[in-house]
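Reopening this ticket.

The earlier resolution said the output was attached, but the attachment link was broken on my side. Pasting everything inline this time so it's all in one place.
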Amino acid sequence: MTAAQKQPVEHRGLITLVIMLATIMQVLDTTIANVALPSMTGDLDASADTINWVLTSYIVAAAIMTPVTGWLADRIGKRELFLVSIVGFTLASMACGLSWSLPSMVGFRLLQGVFGAAIVPLSQTFLLDINPREKAGQAMALWGAGIMVGPIIGPTLGGWLTESWDWRWVFFINLPVGIVAFLGCAAWLPRAERVVRRFDFFGFAMLAIALGSLQLMLDRGAEVEWFAALEIWIYLFLMLTGFWVFVIHILGAEKPFLEPAMFADRNFATGLVFIFVVGIILLASLALLPPMLSHIFGYPVITTGLVMAPRGVGTMISMLIAGRMLRFVDARLMVTAGLSLTALSLHMMTGFSPQMDSTPIVLSGVVQGLGLGLVFVPLSTVAFATIAPRFRADATSLFSLVRNIGSSVGISMVTVMLTHNSQINHAELGANVTPYNPQLWQLSPDAAQGGLQSLAVIDRLVTQQATMIGYIDDFRLMMLITLAALPLALLLRKPRVGGAPVTVHAD
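Inline output:
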């Protein structure tokens, strides 16, 4: 250990605060713009189909640029890259708020994704660097709180800003946060050694093609009826080809874009699988609940946010507890307990019905928040506990990338299942609406006799019930995925106790 490595990190608390400000700013933008899309449509002269490119452009750009974070951090310095990312992301956010057309908005959202891609993995790297190993759990608890609570409050904050002010404030709100985060990071972030590292352009190009095609396929599939469209087949071909060539390349290249030795660490490899599952559960459930509460229960945006807020509270509580427990309790037991609570919450959600009040939604949300927090903190800590420090920047970028891919896969999966199952349920329930059904005569004699208004009311009830069953089917699928992930906890290795603290290189 060098003298530089032994130097204590000053202003650790302030560094953590400004890093988390930047992280929350970036994470919020993955969901905060969703509720503003209808308002953007008219102002930007876009259609209901083309406005979705506002979301797609950001997701694709972030996915392509996330894996390159490690190389850029070595080349120009972690501190410098983080500062550039904050400035670029904030300026791109302002440009999005000033957009005058759909092409300008899509272009500025691409820039947002490019600059924002490095913020989350670098924030995790910094927190691991500036904290000793015995405090890594608490550091990951704070980091995880921002990562997981951000998407929960994003739709609520976006809805309030859109209704109270204008959709442009969804982006303008990043300016003060970005300024404070930049000034704090510029003042207190420690400098790191730079490493001259050759850029593997071919490997990056193959991975970029694969990731971009995957994100486009997942985002565009529902709009073009999936594999009924040639476009999706092209994306699938490019994705499979890109991934295949990338894997073959890094296994044989002298200095590949991502070193295969990184994946030999069992904790890190298992952590990638776990975070993929967490990504599916977290954002898939968040994608399902707002439309369910709006369309079936008739909740306005603000009420939906209030009903879902306890989920975030449960997450923060469990993360803060898990960060301290990690020093005394086996991380594998905490992950198992967290997954069990998450599965229990999803089982509770399979009992939802249009006739209930908000109490079951709140209770299941709190239980799910507690469960996800218990999984995320030990997972984020153990996944990097045994990996070599030289892999850390690449590893954290992959960790964020896999979580985002899991989120995209989960959202697409539950959306497709919801549409498909709702149609099947509607057909099966509608088949019972006949004049020969005595229950229909008891419920509505006018409908049984062919009254159009009464039949319209019955059809709305059938649609409501069919959609509710579709949501329940999705919750049951996520519960099964969670239970299937439980045995993976056995593959995690318990980190060595009393090891050397995580160090930081300072000038």
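Reporter confirms the inline version is readable. Residues 1-6, 497-507 have pLDDT under 50 and may be disordered. Residues 345 and 446 are 41 Å apart (CA to CA).
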